[in-house]
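Re: the request from the purification team.
They wanted to know what the chain is likely to look like in 3D before they choose a buffer screen. I agreed to run a prediction and write the result into the notebook, where they can find it.
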Amino acid sequence: MPMPSEELQAFNQHARDALKAAFNADYDPIAMRAAREAAPVLELQSTLLPVGEGQVEMRPGAACQRLVVYVAGGGFCFDANDTHRQLIDELASATGSDACLVRYRLAPEHPFPAAYEDVGSAMDHLIAARGAENLAVIADSAGAALVLSVVMARLATGEAPPCRLAFLSALTDLAMTGPSHVANAEADPLFGPQAIIHKAMHYLQGHNPTDPAASPFWGDPSGLPPMLFIVGSTEVMRDDSVRFVDKARASGVDARVSIYEEAPHTFPLLARFPETIAAIGEVGDFLRQAWP
Protein backbone atom coordinates (compact mmCIF):
# COMPACT_ATOMS: atom_id res chain seq x y z
CA MET A 1 0.00 0.00 0.00
CA PRO A 2 1.28 3.54 -0.72
CA MET A 3 2.31 5.74 2.17
CA PRO A 4 -0.47 7.99 3.52
CA SER A 5 -0.52 11.48 2.04
CA GLU A 6 0.60 14.51 4.03
CA GLU A 7 -3.00 15.78 4.01
CA LEU A 8 -4.29 12.54 5.51
CA GLN A 9 -1.57 12.47 8.15
CA ALA A 10 -2.43 16.04 9.15
CA PHE A 11 -6.11 15.12 9.46
CA ASN A 12 -5.26 12.08 11.58
CA GLN A 13 -3.15 14.16 13.95
CA HIS A 14 -5.95 16.69 14.33
CA ALA A 15 -8.45 13.88 14.94
CA ARG A 16 -6.31 12.33 17.67
CA ASP A 17 -5.73 15.69 19.36
CA ALA A 18 -9.21 17.20 19.11
CA LEU A 19 -11.81 14.53 18.38
CA LYS A 20 -10.97 11.02 19.56
CA ALA A 21 -11.64 11.51 23.27
CA ALA A 22 -15.05 13.05 22.61
CA PHE A 23 -16.01 10.45 20.01
CA ASN A 24 -15.26 7.63 22.43
CA ALA A 25 -17.18 9.07 25.37
CA ASP A 26 -20.64 7.73 26.16
CA TYR A 27 -22.35 10.99 25.19
CA ASP A 28 -26.09 11.52 24.88
CA PRO A 29 -26.89 10.96 21.17
CA ILE A 30 -30.22 12.76 21.46
CA ALA A 31 -28.58 15.92 22.79
CA MET A 32 -25.79 15.75 20.21
CA ARG A 33 -28.32 15.23 17.44
CA ALA A 34 -30.20 18.33 18.56
CA ALA A 35 -26.98 20.35 18.46
CA ARG A 36 -26.19 19.10 14.96
CA GLU A 37 -29.68 19.92 13.71
CA ALA A 38 -29.29 23.49 14.97
CA ALA A 39 -26.24 24.03 12.75
CA PRO A 40 -26.72 25.64 9.31
CA VAL A 41 -27.02 23.26 6.36
CA LEU A 42 -26.66 23.63 2.63
CA GLU A 43 -29.80 24.32 0.62
CA LEU A 44 -29.96 21.07 -1.31
CA GLN A 45 -33.21 20.23 -3.07
CA SER A 46 -34.80 16.89 -2.17
CA THR A 47 -38.16 15.17 -2.36
CA LEU A 48 -39.17 13.16 0.72
CA LEU A 49 -41.26 10.03 0.18
CA PRO A 50 -42.70 8.28 3.25
CA VAL A 51 -42.07 4.52 3.14
CA GLY A 52 -43.34 2.61 6.15
CA GLU A 53 -41.99 4.30 9.27
CA GLY A 54 -39.00 5.74 7.41
CA GLN A 55 -38.42 7.97 4.39
CA VAL A 56 -36.72 7.89 1.02
CA GLU A 57 -35.07 11.19 0.15
CA MET A 58 -34.95 11.52 -3.65
CA ARG A 59 -32.16 13.74 -4.97
CA PRO A 60 -32.26 15.77 -8.20
CA GLY A 61 -30.95 13.40 -10.85
CA ALA A 62 -30.99 12.09 -14.38
CA ALA A 63 -34.65 10.96 -14.35
CA CYS A 64 -33.72 7.45 -15.45
CA GLN A 65 -34.52 3.96 -14.21
CA ARG A 66 -31.10 3.36 -12.66
CA LEU A 67 -30.85 4.39 -9.02
CA VAL A 68 -27.94 4.71 -6.57
CA VAL A 69 -29.22 4.32 -3.00
CA TYR A 70 -27.28 5.57 0.03
CA VAL A 71 -27.82 4.31 3.58
CA ALA A 72 -25.86 6.37 6.11
CA GLY A 73 -24.46 4.93 9.31
CA GLY A 74 -24.11 7.39 12.17
CA GLY A 75 -23.91 4.61 14.73
CA PHE A 76 -27.64 3.98 14.27
CA CYS A 77 -28.15 7.28 16.14
CA PHE A 78 -27.56 10.03 13.56
CA ASP A 79 -29.19 10.83 10.22
CA ALA A 80 -27.53 11.52 6.88
CA ASN A 81 -26.00 14.98 6.47
CA ASP A 82 -24.97 17.22 3.58
CA THR A 83 -21.67 15.36 3.16
CA HIS A 84 -23.60 12.18 2.37
CA ARG A 85 -25.78 14.10 -0.10
CA GLN A 86 -22.78 15.56 -1.89
CA LEU A 87 -21.16 12.12 -2.22
CA ILE A 88 -24.29 10.39 -3.51
CA ASP A 89 -24.94 13.23 -5.97
CA GLU A 90 -21.37 12.92 -7.26
CA LEU A 91 -21.62 9.15 -7.71
CA ALA A 92 -25.03 9.39 -9.36
CA SER A 93 -23.69 11.96 -11.81
CA ALA A 94 -20.68 9.76 -12.57
CA THR A 95 -22.95 6.79 -13.34
CA GLY A 96 -25.77 8.69 -15.10
CA SER A 97 -28.30 7.52 -12.53
CA ASP A 98 -30.83 8.89 -10.08
CA ALA A 99 -29.90 9.05 -6.40
CA CYS A 100 -31.66 8.76 -3.07
CA LEU A 101 -30.94 8.39 0.63
CA VAL A 102 -32.82 6.07 2.95
CA ARG A 103 -33.75 7.71 6.25
CA TYR A 104 -34.64 5.36 9.07
CA ARG A 105 -35.78 5.68 12.67
CA LEU A 106 -32.87 6.37 15.00
CA ALA A 107 -31.68 4.85 18.27
CA PRO A 108 -31.93 5.13 21.21
CA GLU A 109 -35.56 6.26 20.86
CA HIS A 110 -36.14 3.52 18.28
CA PRO A 111 -33.98 0.46 19.10
CA PHE A 112 -33.53 -2.70 17.04
CA PRO A 113 -35.30 -3.75 14.85
CA ALA A 114 -36.68 -0.30 13.87
CA ALA A 115 -33.84 0.75 11.53
CA TYR A 116 -33.63 -2.76 10.05
CA GLU A 117 -37.35 -2.71 9.31
CA ASP A 118 -37.22 0.76 7.76
CA VAL A 119 -34.32 -0.09 5.46
CA GLY A 120 -36.13 -3.29 4.49
CA SER A 121 -39.30 -1.39 3.65
CA ALA A 122 -37.34 1.11 1.58
CA MET A 123 -35.53 -1.68 -0.26
CA ASP A 124 -38.81 -3.43 -1.05
CA HIS A 125 -40.34 -0.18 -2.32
CA LEU A 126 -37.39 0.85 -4.48
CA ILE A 127 -36.85 -2.58 -6.03
CA ALA A 128 -40.55 -2.84 -6.83
CA ALA A 129 -40.44 0.59 -8.46
CA ARG A 130 -37.13 0.34 -10.34
CA GLY A 131 -36.18 -3.34 -10.56
CA ALA A 132 -33.35 -5.03 -8.68
CA GLU A 133 -31.09 -4.87 -11.74
CA ASN A 134 -31.35 -1.06 -11.67
CA LEU A 135 -30.50 -0.60 -8.00
CA ALA A 136 -26.99 -0.18 -6.58
CA VAL A 137 -26.60 0.49 -2.86
CA ILE A 138 -23.85 2.32 -0.98
CA ALA A 139 -23.65 2.41 2.80
CA ASP A 140 -21.18 3.50 5.43
CA SER A 141 -20.44 2.14 8.90
CA ALA A 142 -23.64 1.04 10.67
CA GLY A 143 -25.54 1.52 7.41
CA ALA A 144 -23.59 -1.44 6.01
CA ALA A 145 -24.93 -3.69 8.78
CA LEU A 146 -28.47 -2.62 7.93
CA VAL A 147 -28.08 -3.09 4.17
CA LEU A 148 -26.34 -6.45 4.36
CA SER A 149 -28.81 -7.84 6.88
CA VAL A 150 -31.77 -6.70 4.76
CA VAL A 151 -30.33 -8.03 1.49
CA MET A 152 -29.41 -11.38 3.08
CA ALA A 153 -32.96 -11.67 4.44
CA ARG A 154 -34.30 -11.00 0.92
CA LEU A 155 -32.10 -13.75 -0.47
CA ALA A 156 -33.30 -16.19 2.19
CA THR A 157 -36.88 -15.73 0.96
CA GLY A 158 -35.99 -15.96 -2.72
CA GLU A 159 -36.18 -12.23 -3.47
CA ALA A 160 -33.72 -10.54 -5.81
CA PRO A 161 -30.91 -8.39 -4.35
CA PRO A 162 -29.68 -5.06 -5.73
CA CYS A 163 -27.18 -5.44 -8.55
CA ARG A 164 -24.18 -4.03 -6.63
CA LEU A 165 -23.24 -3.16 -3.06
CA ALA A 166 -20.45 -0.80 -1.96
CA PHE A 167 -19.47 -0.09 1.63
CA LEU A 168 -17.32 2.50 3.39
CA SER A 169 -15.83 1.42 6.73
CA ALA A 170 -18.49 -1.24 7.17
CA LEU A 171 -19.79 -2.40 10.53
CA THR A 172 -20.81 -6.05 10.13
CA ASP A 173 -20.31 -7.59 13.59
CA LEU A 174 -21.89 -5.88 16.58
CA ALA A 175 -20.39 -8.61 18.79
CA MET A 176 -17.01 -7.06 17.92
CA THR A 177 -15.14 -10.35 17.56
CA GLY A 178 -12.69 -9.06 14.93
CA PRO A 179 -9.07 -8.76 16.14
CA SER A 180 -8.76 -5.17 14.88
CA HIS A 181 -11.11 -3.93 17.61
CA VAL A 182 -8.23 -4.54 20.01
CA ALA A 183 -5.20 -4.39 17.71
CA ASN A 184 -6.11 -0.95 16.29
CA ALA A 185 -7.53 0.62 19.46
CA GLU A 186 -4.62 3.06 19.71
CA ALA A 187 -3.81 3.41 16.02
CA ASP A 188 -7.31 4.41 14.90
CA PRO A 189 -7.28 8.24 14.77
CA LEU A 190 -11.00 8.59 15.55
CA PHE A 191 -12.43 5.61 17.41
CA GLY A 192 -11.59 3.03 20.03
CA PRO A 193 -13.69 -0.07 20.65
CA GLN A 194 -15.67 1.75 23.33
CA ALA A 195 -17.24 3.98 20.66
CA ILE A 196 -18.67 0.92 18.92
CA ILE A 197 -19.82 -0.55 22.23
CA HIS A 198 -21.77 2.61 23.09
CA LYS A 199 -23.54 2.76 19.71
CA ALA A 200 -24.33 -0.95 19.75
CA MET A 201 -25.83 -0.61 23.22
CA HIS A 202 -28.02 2.30 22.14
CA TYR A 203 -29.26 0.28 19.16
CA LEU A 204 -29.50 -3.27 20.49
CA GLN A 205 -30.71 -2.44 24.02
CA GLY A 206 -30.17 -6.02 25.17
CA HIS A 207 -30.82 -7.80 21.87
CA ASN A 208 -28.39 -10.57 20.86
CA PRO A 209 -25.50 -8.97 18.90
CA THR A 210 -25.00 -12.18 16.90
CA ASP A 211 -28.52 -12.11 15.44
CA PRO A 212 -27.91 -11.92 11.66
CA ALA A 213 -30.65 -9.29 11.42
CA ALA A 214 -28.38 -7.04 13.50
CA SER A 215 -24.92 -8.39 12.60
CA PRO A 216 -24.70 -9.72 9.04
CA PHE A 217 -21.34 -11.36 9.73
CA TRP A 218 -23.26 -14.07 11.58
CA GLY A 219 -25.57 -14.77 8.64
CA ASP A 220 -25.26 -16.60 5.32
CA PRO A 221 -23.74 -14.41 2.57
CA SER A 222 -24.47 -16.91 -0.22
CA GLY A 223 -26.03 -15.26 -3.26
CA LEU A 224 -25.00 -11.70 -2.48
CA PRO A 225 -24.28 -9.51 -5.54
CA PRO A 226 -20.80 -8.15 -6.36
CA MET A 227 -19.49 -6.12 -3.43
CA LEU A 228 -16.74 -3.58 -2.81
CA PHE A 229 -15.54 -2.70 0.70
CA ILE A 230 -13.40 0.40 1.36
CA VAL A 231 -11.66 0.63 4.74
CA GLY A 232 -8.62 2.13 6.46
CA SER A 233 -5.76 -0.09 7.64
CA THR A 234 -5.79 1.31 11.19
CA GLU A 235 -9.55 1.38 11.79
CA VAL A 236 -10.83 -0.57 14.77
CA MET A 237 -13.54 -1.82 12.40
CA ARG A 238 -11.09 -2.92 9.68
CA ASP A 239 -11.77 -6.61 10.24
CA ASP A 240 -15.53 -6.10 9.93
CA SER A 241 -14.79 -5.60 6.22
CA VAL A 242 -11.93 -8.08 5.85
CA ARG A 243 -13.67 -10.97 7.62
CA PHE A 244 -16.98 -10.43 5.87
CA VAL A 245 -15.26 -10.41 2.48
CA ASP A 246 -13.39 -13.61 3.36
CA LYS A 247 -16.64 -15.28 4.39
CA ALA A 248 -18.47 -14.07 1.28
CA ARG A 249 -15.71 -15.28 -1.04
CA ALA A 250 -15.80 -18.69 0.64
CA SER A 251 -19.50 -18.79 -0.29
CA GLY A 252 -18.76 -18.00 -3.94
CA VAL A 253 -19.58 -14.28 -3.82
CA ASP A 254 -17.68 -11.75 -5.94
CA ALA A 255 -16.37 -9.55 -3.11
CA ARG A 256 -13.22 -7.51 -2.59
CA VAL A 257 -11.81 -5.11 -0.04
CA SER A 258 -9.56 -2.12 -0.70
CA ILE A 259 -7.52 -1.14 2.35
CA TYR A 260 -6.15 2.41 2.43
CA GLU A 261 -3.08 2.96 4.57
CA GLU A 262 -3.94 4.79 7.83
CA ALA A 263 -7.17 6.21 6.39
CA PRO A 264 -9.73 7.13 9.09
CA HIS A 265 -13.28 5.89 9.47
CA THR A 266 -15.54 6.72 6.48
CA PHE A 267 -12.74 8.82 5.00
CA PRO A 268 -14.45 9.27 1.58
CA LEU A 269 -16.92 11.51 3.43
CA LEU A 270 -14.15 13.69 4.86
CA ALA A 271 -11.94 16.43 3.43
CA ARG A 272 -10.67 15.93 -0.11
CA PHE A 273 -7.22 14.49 0.39
CA PRO A 274 -5.75 12.11 -2.24
CA GLU A 275 -7.04 8.94 -0.58
CA THR A 276 -10.58 10.34 -0.56
CA ILE A 277 -10.46 11.14 -4.26
CA ALA A 278 -9.03 7.70 -5.06
CA ALA A 279 -11.68 5.88 -3.01
CA ILE A 280 -14.58 7.81 -4.56
CA GLY A 281 -13.17 7.04 -7.99
CA GLU A 282 -12.90 3.36 -7.09
CA VAL A 283 -16.54 3.24 -5.97
CA GLY A 284 -17.64 5.08 -9.12
CA ASP A 285 -15.77 2.63 -11.36
CA PHE A 286 -17.30 -0.29 -9.46
CA LEU A 287 -20.83 1.05 -9.93
CA ARG A 288 -20.30 1.81 -13.62
CA GLN A 289 -19.45 -1.84 -14.21
CA ALA A 290 -23.06 -2.69 -13.32
CA TRP A 291 -24.42 -0.43 -16.05
CA PRO A 292 -22.05 -0.51 -19.05
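For the purification team: Residues 94 and 154 are 28 Å apart (CA to CA).
Please add any questions underneath this entry.
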